[in-house]
Write a structure and sequence with these properties.
CATH class: Alpha Beta
Order of helices and strands: HHHHEHEEHEHHHEHEHEHEHHEH
CATH architecture: Alpha-Beta Barrel
Number of helices: 15
Shape: globular
Structural class: alpha/beta
Strand content: 5-15%
Length: about 350
């Protein structure tokens, strides 16, 4: 902002409980927007868009033009890190991402690191930050080590990550080496995004919910704590949001032990419980069910107001409990925005 005050989203992530709530939506730049679909049809596949900084910057900014959100989330993918570590990455229509060789069949030592694959992402961040209004916060992100490892080991997504979980039990040392390697690249990647202009970053742990408590401590809390520690050593004032989807009651330990500045709350968590159990004064982000946004109607307004009211006594970034669905009607997003903008805790 022109007077030197941080934008609302950044102020909230730094611990200020504003009267109104800043808002952005996970996957807000994507397939539910006709302007995104048009650009993708013109430019080609998903990875081609990610590696075209001009196109990726345009996609990042599209939802801001339409809705006026308070945050711009980098258009990229969590699997850029294994791609930079030397795995081949393809996005296949109807199947999702595929990495090869998968680490069930190959070794880390057999991969040829390609750190230059991170450079176009930094250029996207620079372009977006230069184009943003001062009241909008630029958000970078990376996948957390556990979630990234599940793809690197199995080569693709799976419902319960059984192959990766089994490897983690069967060969602790080998799996720890995979996690450590991901942590190292992720730290560099987040610092690179910050140096390019990201004002806050989010760690996505989309598959954290499949782990038993002791494994959650070992493969979610400990690696995220190390990432946070090392990023904060370089940029102590840049907020880090941790989002361990599916963590349930383990979210409390995550919030206390990782060192993140704010926690994302998924839609399966009762906001009444989260407001009561999470560390006092810690900013939270979430947690409207994306399917409620898809459904719309009076229940959408009631659900949004419930989330807003539950987190009224602490800093709160309004968001979904996970990413917006590709078939979500534009008018439902507009209706949600009206509800959030019309709410005040005073």
């Amino acid at each position: 902002m022109s007077d030197g005050i941080d934008p609302p989203l950044l102020r909230t992530l730094k611990g200020e409980n504003l009267a109104s709530r800043p808002m952005w939506l996970m996957r807000q730049a994507g397939r539910y927007l006709p302007e995104y679909r048009a650009l993708r049809a013109d430019k080609g596949g998903f990875l081609e868009l990610v590696y075209d900084p001009a196109a990726a910057a345009e996609i990042t900014i599209q939802p801001l033009r339409r809705f006026g959100f308070d945050g711009a989330i980098l258009f990229s993918d969590i699997l850029i890190v294994p791609y930079a570590m030397g795995q081949d990455l393809k996005f296949l229509a109807g199947e999702g991402p595929h990495l090869s060789p998968r680490l069930l069949d190959a070794t880390l030592e057999g991969l040829s690191a390609s750190p230059e694959r991170l450079l176009p992402i930094y250029e996207t961040v620079r372009r977006v930050r230069a184009a943003l209004a001062p009241e909008v916060t630029m958000l970078g992100f990376a996948g957390s080590a556990w979630t990234v490892a599940t793809y690197m080991v199995a080569g693709e997504g799976s419902r319960d990550q059984h192959e990766t979980r089994a490897l983690a039990y069967r060969d602790r040392a080998r799996f720890a080496a995979i996690i450590d390697a991901i942590v190292n690249v992720t730290v560099d990647y987040l610092i690179g995004q910050i140096e390019a202009g990201a004002q806050a970053v989010q760690l996505f742990d989309s598959w954290a919910g499949t782990l038993a408590p002791a494994e959650f401590e070992r493969w979610v809390i400990q690696p995220n704590r190390e990432i946070v520690r090392r990023v904060k050593a370089c940029y102590p004032d840049v907020p880090i949001i941790g989002f361990p989807k599916g963590a349930g009651e383990k979210l409390v330990a995550y919030a206390h032990e990782t060192g993140v500045d704010a926690v994302g709350v998924d839609e399966t968590i009762d906001p009444v419980w989260a407001a009561r159990e999470l560390p006092a004064g810690m900013p939270v982000q979430g947690n409207l069910d994306p399917l409620l946004l898809l459904a719309g109607g009076p229940e959408l307004e009631r659900g949004a107001l419930h989330v807003l009211d539950c987190f009224a006594d602490r800093p709160h970034v309004f968001n979904l409990g996970h990413g917006i669905g590709q078939f979500t009607p534009i008018e439902h997003v507009e209706a949600l925005l009206k509800v959030v903008r019309g709410w005040s805790r005073t």
